[in-house]
Amino acid sequence: MQNALFVGVSSQVALARELDVIANNMANVSTTGFKARNARFEEYLMPTASADSFMGADRRVSYVIDSGTPLDLSQGPVEPDGNPMHVAVKGDAFLSVKTPSGDRFTRNGAFELDARGTLVTSDGYAVQGDNGPITVSQQETGLSIAPDGTVSTNLGVRGKIRLVTFKNAQVLKSEGANLFSSTQAPQAAGIDGRLEPGTLERSNVKPVVEMTRLMDVNRTYSMISSVISRLDDLRGTAIRRLADVA
């Protein structure tokens, strides 16, 4: 009976983790370039059942453990908005940006110019070019971004936006503010990524799917709570009856 309670609790812990993932996805349904995460779980077999005092071989107990939250790297909807400084990343590439903590990676292509004329994201992080941040002067006009990332003005080419890929993008760690970090060295995207100027990639979160998952998690969590409550009542009844016999 004790093992059954532990199995139920392990399931509830896993479901609580999945609920956090769903809540984060729903909170970013309108975030430009956001990539959803999914919850993954696996079975953990306890080699012995310590509370099993019956004759014969010990029985293995099956628990639930969290095996990770992989990224959903599918392309989000691309919507035109007519802004020449906005770009959608197509393919498996990421934009490289400079932050106080070092280089980070994002799919947020909502660019603008800051007070110093540096091309930055909507969160104020400098967009990295092949030769560092890209800057234009106040006298320049007609800024445009080509599909290969080349940034030009009326005075010519000002740089080329750096697009990178990773051998295994699942190693990317979410850092908040729609940024990722990686211990794996990025590689030049090449043909694996390009930009679509005048558009933005929206979040790839599917609200209907997430709401369905939310209802399933709540229903399952409530069901397990009911089972645990009944097992606890059963244990209490057993203890009282054994005490009466004694």
From TrEMBL:
Q: Which UniProt keywords apply?
A: Bacterial flagellum, Cell projection, Cilium, Flagellum
GO terms, biological process: bacterial-type flagellum-dependent swarming motility
Q: Which domain of life is it from?
A: Bacteria
Keyword Protein biosynthesis (UniProt): no
Q: Where in the cell is it found?
A: Bacterial flagellum basal body
Q: Which residues form the Flagellar basal body rod protein N-terminal domain?
A: 7-35
What InterPro entries does the annotation carry?
A: Flag_bb_rod_N, Flagellar_FlgE/F/G, Flg_bb/hook_C_dom, FlgE/F/G-like, FlgF, LlgE_F_G-like_D1
Domain Flagellar basal-body/hook protein C-terminal: residue ranges: 197-240
Pfam families for this protein: Flg_bb_rod, Flg_bbr_C, LlgE_F_G_D1
Q: Which family does it belong to?
A: Belongs to the flagella basal body rod proteins family.
Record text on subunit structure and interactions: The basal body constitutes a major portion of the flagellar organelle and consists of five rings (E,L,P,S, and M) mounted on a central rod. The rod consists of about 26 subunits of FlgG in the distal portion, and FlgB, FlgC and FlgF are thought to build up the proximal portion of the rod with about 6 subunits each.
Q: What is this protein called in UniProt?
A: Flagellar basal-body rod protein FlgF
**Which organism was this protein described from?**
Methylobacterium haplocladii
